[in-house]
Amino acid sequence: MQAIFRTGDAATDPASTGVDPEDAPLNRFHWRLTFYSGGGPFLDGYILSIIGVAMVQATPELGLSTSWQGLIGASALIGIFFGGCLGGWLTDKFGRQVLYTLDLILIIACSVAQFWAQTAFTLFILRLLIGVAVGADYPIATALLAEFVPRRYRGPLLGGLIAIWFAGAAVAYVVGELLLNFGPDGWRWMLASAALPATAFVIMRHGTPESPRWLSRQGRHAEATMVIRQIYGTNANSKPISSSSGHERLDGWALFRSGYGDRLFFVTAFWTCSIIPLFAVYAFGPTILASLGLDEAMANIGSAFITTLLLAGCLVAMAIVNRLGRRKLMLHSFLWSGIALLLLSTSTGSAPIIALSCFSAYALFIGGAQVLTWVYPNELFPTEIRGTAIGLASSLSRIGAAAGTYLAPISLDTLGIGATMSIAAFITFVGFVVSWRWAPETANFGLDQSASL
């Protein structure tokens, strides 16, 4: 535990007086854990974004057909589907700590191997495996962070991981543009470059302690108490976490009984509705803006501007997720972003500034739903099945994301920009209806309380 526990973490923390960890103030351990847990989202954004730049050179060199371009572009998303399911189950069964670094080691190995890929099939398999590792990290890292962070800060810090995703995407575009001028093998260096941040996060994550909540559910109360006291001081109160282990022991099948099936449906449905339009907009932003009347240069600049607004919307949502509450934030996010898309669908032929304004409004308002894709799944399920639930929901949502990304250019070509944006608006409004029916309010509740609402 030496890497993440450092002298002074507990000594400067008022929690050393015996306060419940759920009500403790943040200390340096929590900030470092949040940053280290952001490794998965950062690499997700980096890996999914840099392939678009790399394909410029990889397509002619490998002789990629249109089908192979689509498969390689979607390969990481396909891998995330399998990785989320597998990683969630493994982290509930074997704990968060070991898997917290093993998944990144797989990313390093496959990223480096991409440098020597000579065929489309090889590149597809390697990126599929990278996607598996990225998908596994979602339930592992977010469950670990959720189980350490006090209730008051859980929403903002979990939601902050989506901001790290956009940071990874932004860095990928910068690195990609720099390496495009690196010669004909620039695309190989681009794809291999993911190994560098992955290695850095492996080193930083070394020594991360096991979740005391998971330890308690396994009957390892002494180890759980030791971890809590290392974080908050020798007088920290470990009773709330230890006593909750007396609840009925659950397994993955509990997702489909005792109300957890409804919660899994809710999380999967709203997550899917929030990312289908987002992934399509993010992947084909320049094409969509060009269809709305912007020239090529302005379309590229507009896409960069909208990406900045997506990040800004997430930062605003992080700031108000406790004050406004989870449920209200979700409803407002879906409602106003859906209206923005609907207006966008009717702006064909209007001045480009109108289309760009509607696009910008969507980017700002959808930030609330994006933040809550990291918060709600961690708060609605008990410790024994938290990883499994997060992994399954993230995997199922990626089916929609992959389908939306694949169908977006087809819809633009066959139906046109107006109809395509109308479909995106409809999906967003479905997210609003689902949230209106099922979204609970979990702000200010402890993890055990929110899981039993």
Give the second-level CATH assignment, the architecture of the largest domain.
Up-down Bundle
Contiguous helical run count? 20
CATH topology of the largest domain: Growth Hormone, Chain: A
Structural class: mainly alpha
Separation, N- and C-terminal Cα atoms: 34 Å
The CATH class of the largest domain: Mainly Alpha
What percent strand? under 5%
Helix content: over 70%
Given as residue ranges, the uncertain stretches (5+ residues, pLDDT < 50) are: 11-17, 243-247
Number of domains as seen in the coordinates: 2
Shape: globular
Alpha-carbon Rg, integer? 22 Å
Biggest β-sheet description: none
**What's the CATH H-level homologous superfamily of the largest domain?**
MFS general substrate transporter like domains
- Average pLDDT over all residues: 82
- Secondary structure tally: strands: 0
The sequence of SSEs as H and E is HHHHHHHHHHHHHHHHHHHH
Describe this structure in words.
The chain is mostly helical and 453 residues long. It folds into two domains: 19-208, MFS general substrate transporter like domains (Growth Hormone, Chain: A, Up-down Bundle); 252-451, MFS general substrate transporter like domains (Growth Hormone, Chain: A). Helix content is 76%, strand content 0%. The chain contains 20 helices and no strands. Helix 4 (99-113) runs antiparallel to helix 5, helix 6 (151-179) runs antiparallel to helix 7 (186-192) and helix 12 packs antiparallel against helix 17. It is globular and about 65 Å long. Residues 11-17 and 243-247 have low confidence and may be disordered.
